[in-house]
Amino acid sequence: MALAGVTDASGASGAASLARTGTGGRSIPLRDGWRFALVDPVGATDPTGEYARAAEPGYDDSRWRRISVPHDWSIELTPTTDHGTSSGTGFLPGGLGWYRIAFTLPPVYEGKRISVEFDGVHMDSSVHCNGELVGQHPYGYTGFALDLTDLLHKDGTTANVIAVRVRNQLPSSRWYSGSGIYRAARLIVTDPVHVRRWGTYVTTPEIDDDHALVRVRTSVVNASGAARRVEVRSAVVDPDGRTVARRTSTIDVTDTGTADQQLSVRTPMLWSGEHPHRYILHTELRVDGRTTDTYRTPFGIRQVVFDADDGMTLNGTHVKLRGVNLHHDLGALGGAVDADAVERQLTIMRSMGVNALRTSHNPPAPEVTEACERLGIVMMVEAFDCWRRGKNRYDYGRFFDEWSDRDIAEMVLAARNSPAVILWSIGNEIPDSTSAAGLAWPTGSSTTYGDSTRRGPS
């Protein structure tokens, strides 16, 4: 399904229709058709009150800029020593900004579950749908999803308006962060019975030359209001596009349920730096003989071992890590994620002999993880640059106590199936780690949430 020709967010007459229907896809990119206004480069307030009603559907945004997402407004501004900038952030301001997008949904979407999903908004964002505050997300480097089902119009004519307020008050970072909806955004449309977000967990605990055991755990959501018997069909497709294993099981689901399956892949093609073979798990849910959801999970078959004497081995072969720490920005392009620029950046790294990447100092965009998978680069995925004790006046330390467990969970769930990810890091140069109170946080937190195969926070 595609979101076709989205235009002004100022009323129903300017909103375009979601033309294609059916169950062939669950993701609708929210790329074009956005309007943007930079309210204040200081980021503290709306000085004139002009944008006080910017979340309301009828607000006139016709004078706002037309932009596409991903978008970084800071890279567009003139360098200055004002507004809390510094050499570390390129002397580029942050500020307070608003985004709006409008669209219509046809009646066929009645009864569907619809959410909006952002891979990253920097930072301190508030999301509104048709004038209602749906949710907030302070951290700029983790994705999030918000349920819009009960707020959306589905009559084909009334405009739906998503409005996002973003506040990047400086100084908020020790490096260039960028500002805005700088990673991809999309609508997720499903039937009431569907695979939970990040709802597949794939591990390969047994590997030899002849076969690999693939364990799959599938989390199913049933929002229909009545118990359902759900058929979970799993199929593994090899790098050449051939289906090499299948398994079907049935579970009874009232609200949520889990299906555990084991599949055997003969003569597996292993993921490594030299041969980064990737498999695809295709998941299909069926209720009463009808497909209610399909879900795609890339994964790899590989075994990583760390040993105090022998170091690291990958598939039984000793590997010396030649790594780099790489911040998320794309140089002169700013913070807005571009898959081709990411690929170019990492290809250059690979040509230098690099085989390992630490995502300093935050979780990466999905495009980075995917590029590492294709290029055979192993990853240490890092969570934070600070915990409670911040390093800048307006950094993540303000939100740590309330949000850190949720952000750790999002980091792990988003990347746990990646063959490239071999380590998690819960922080970089953390002052809290020198105190007993600070050390109590990782002990009691969800730092292995959803992943029992990787250990060793840095």
SSE order and pairing:
Blueprint lengths: L26 E3 L4 E7 L24 E3 L27 E9 L9 E6 L6 E5 L2 E6 L6 E4 L12 E9 L16 E6 L2 E15 L3 E12 L5 E10 L5 E11 L2 E11 L12 E9 L2 E10 L4 E4 L3 E4 L2 E3 L3 E3 L13 H13 L4 E3 L7 H10 L2 E5 L17 H16 L5 E5 L10 H9 L14
Parallel strand pairs: 21-22, 22-23, 23-24
Antiparallel strand pairs: 1-10, 2-3, 2-4, 4-9, 5-8, 5-10, 6-7, 6-9, 11-12, 12-15, 13-14, 13-16, 16-17, 18-19, 19-20
CATH topology of the largest domain: Jelly Rolls
- What would you call the shape? globular
Structural class from helices and strands? mainly beta
Low-confidence stretches: 1-24
| Main sheet overview | 6 strands, antiparallel
Q: Can you say what the CATH homologous superfamily of the largest domain is?
A: Galactose-binding domain-like
| CATH class bucket of the largest domain | Mainly Beta
β-strand amount: 35-45%
Number of separate helices: 4
SSE order in H/E notation?
EEEEEEEEEEEEEEEEEEEEEHEHEHEH
Helix content: 10-25%
Lateral arrangement of strands in the main beta sheet: 3-2-4-9-6-7
How far the N terminus sits from the C terminus, by CA atoms, comes to 42 Å
For the secondary structure, the number of strands is 24
